[in-house]
Amino acid sequence: MASLKDLIRQASDVKHQDDVEIPEWAPGALFRVTGLPSGDWEEYHNKLSKMTKRDEASGVEMTIRSRKAEIVAKALRDQETGELVFPDLREGISILSKRSAGIVGGLFVLVRHLSDEDRDFMQKVKAAEEDFGDGQS
Q1: What is the pLDDT of residue 92?
Q2: Closest listed residue to residue 85, CA positions, set 42, 22, 15, 11
Q3: H or E segment at 32?
Q4: Residue 39: which residues within 8 A CB-CB, separation 6 or more?
Q5: How confident is the model at residue 67 (pLDDT cuts 50, 70, 90)?
Q6: What sign for the dihedral angle of Cα 133, 135, 136, 137?
Q7: How far, in Å, CA of 58 to CA of 32, rounded?
């Protein structure tokens, strides 16, 4: 019998959505959009805000920087091959940063949904309990 650690390691819990069309970018092409694992989301949240100190009198200033293009570049795949559309992350961010904010924003929302980042903790607990069913004690 596999250990709990092995079961977790082997779990296929990152969701994806096939048949995503972006006709403005590639008419007729189908994309796969994947959710991202926990480590990528933590990295995203750590990069999202940057603390800078103005001076002693004024204290700390918070600057929010969007990283939507980065998340989308990590999640957008060719549906036929399963390969990342942007294997070079920097190039992907550069390209996506110059594309429609509405399209990139929509893809970002989809990635958040597939990664369960759009649910609060209690919603996640309830979903996990439903997945385990009556076998839980």
Answers
A1: 95
A2: 22
A3: strand 30-34
A4: none
A5: confident
A6: positive
A7: 47
In angstroms, the CA 101 to CA 79 distance is 23
C-alpha distances out from residue 92 to 4, 70, 85, 103, Å: 37, 7, 8, 14
| Pairing mode, strands 59-64 and 16-21 | unpaired
Q: Which amino acid is at 129?
A: E
Q: Which residues, in sequence order, are CB contacts of 38 under 8 Å at separation 6+?
A: none
Q: Is the pTM of this model over 0.85?
A: no
User: For the chain, first and last CA: distance in Å?
Assistant: 21
Q: Parse the chain into domains and list their residue ranges.
A: 15-36+66-118
**Residue 80 CA from chain centroid, whole number:** 21
- The kind and range of the H/E element at 52 are strand 49-55
Report which of 49, 46, 41 is spatially closest to residue 117, judged by C-alpha positions: 41
CA-closest candidate to residue 74, choices 122, 30, 37, 28: 37
Q: Write the DSSP symbol of residue 77.
A: E
Would you state the structure tokens that stand for residue 29, as one six-digit string?
């092409």
Distance of CA 3 to the CA centre of its chain: 29
